[in-house]
Amino acid sequence: MATKHEQILQHILSLEIGHKISVRQIAKTLNVSEGTAYRAIKEAENQGIVSTIERVGTIRIERKKKENFERLTFAEVIKIVDGQVLGGRRGLHKTLNKFVIGAMQLDAMMRYTEAGSLLIVGNRVKAHELALNEEAAVLITGGFDTNDDIKQLADEKQLPIMSTSYDTFTVAAMINRAIYDQLIKKEIVFVGDIYTPYDESLYLYTKDTLERWYVLNAQSAHTRYPVVDTKERVTGMITSKDLIGKDRDMRVEKMMTRNPITAQEKTSLAYVAHMMVWEGIEMVPVVDSSYKLLGVVSRQDVLKALQQIQRQPQTGETIDDIVASNLVPAEEDQTVFHAHVTPQMTNQLGTLSNGVFTSLMTEASSQLLRHHKKGDLVVENLTVYFLKPVQIDSNVIIRPKLMEAGRIYAKIDIEVFNGKTMVGKGLLMAQLIDR
C-alpha cells in the first residue's frame, strides 16, 4: 500500500497543468496533516512537477524534459526577473520559445511576435493587446501596470501578462543568463541519467535466504546486490565476501552490510565516482528521498559516462571548461603546458584568481596522467605552497612532474611560471580511475 507521502504525490500528478496547489487544500482533500502535505509538495517541487512563485503561489507544471534544457517556462521567467503576474496565471506552465524586445514600431514588433514567444515591452497597452492576440505572453518592464481589459484577455487566452521593476535591457540579460546557466547544467551528468532502473536491476529482500544470492549470481554474474525491506526501501548490501563459509539457508538480513552508501537521481556523476574510488566499491544503489530503491549505478556505468562526456562538444562553458581550453601542451615537450590568462580567469583586481590557479594545476596534472596512459584522476589532496599574483593577459607555463604512480594512486609535483619567474608551486595526490 502506498504511503501518505506517495498518495499526495500521485494526487498532485493527477491535477491538470496550471492548477493552483496549497498545503491546506491538499491536507483537507487527502485527510493528512499540513506538515505531511508541505513535505510532499516540496518533494514535488524537487521532482519538477510543481513550481512555487512569490505572490502567486504553487502551481502544477509540466515536468520539463531534459532535452528542452534551452527553454524556460513563464513561471521560471517570473522568478528570474522577480516579477508579479497581472493576469493569465493558468498559462504560467507554458514554455517560452523565444523572447522579443519591443523597442520598435507596433507593425514591426508584430512581425517578430509569434505564438509561444514572450514580448518584453514597457507601458504600451496596444502592444500588450496585439501580443496576446498573437498567442504570445507579455512582460512589462519598468514596474508599469496594464488595463483591466488586457488582464481579462490574458485570463481568457491563458497567457501570462507579467510586470517587473527592471528595465528592458536588464530583463533580456537576466533571461539570457538563465538560459546559459541551463546549458551548463545540461552538460553536468547526474546519476539519474545513467543508472540501471529498478525493474532491470537485481536485488534481494531481507527475508530471503543466501540461496537467492546464488540464483541471481548464476543469472547475472554480478557479485554485489542491494537488499530491500517489504516496502522496497534499501536497508543493506550483500556481496560474495559476506557469503564465505556461510550456510545457504541463512537469512540475508543477518549477513548483509547495513546502512550502505547510496545515491539519488540528482547526485552528480563526479560525486559518485569519488565515492566508488575512495570506498573501493563497484556498485551503488540509487534511491529516492524515502530510501526506496530506484535502481543501481555501477563503476562501469560511471566510466562509460566519463568517456562519453569527453567526446561531447561544449556549449555552455564553465570555469573548468575555460581552463581546459586554454591549456595547450608545448610543442617541444608534451608534458609542459601553456595557458593564457583571459578576463574570465581573473578576480576583481585583474590577477589570476586562486580558484582558477588551482584548476590549472589540476587540469595540467590530469593531462599529464592521460599522456602517460594512467587513466583519469580523482583529486584526494592538493597542497599549494605559495602563489604570486599573475596579471591579466599573461602567458603562464605549468610543469607537472610525476613523482610516484601506482595502479590506483599518483603523486604529482607542479610548478607554475610566468616567464622565468616561478609564481606557484603545489603537490597533488590523487586516486586513479583506470579505463
TrEMBL record:
Residues 256-314 form the CBS domain. GO terms for molecular function: DNA binding; DNA-binding transcription factor activity. It comes from the Bacteria. SMART domains: CBS (SM00116). The lineage of its organism: Bacteria, Bacillati, Bacillota, Bacilli, Bacillales. Pfam families: 4HBT, CBS, DRTGG, GntR. InterPro entries: CBS_dom (IPR000644), CBS_dom_sf (IPR046342), Diverse_CBS-Domain (IPR051257), DRTGG (IPR010766), HotDog_dom_sf (IPR029069), Ser_kin/Pase_Hpr-like_N_sf (IPR028979), Thioestr_dom (IPR006683), Tscrpt_reg_HTH_GntR (IPR000524). This is CBS domain-containing protein. Keywords: CBS domain, DNA-binding, Transcription, Transcription regulation.
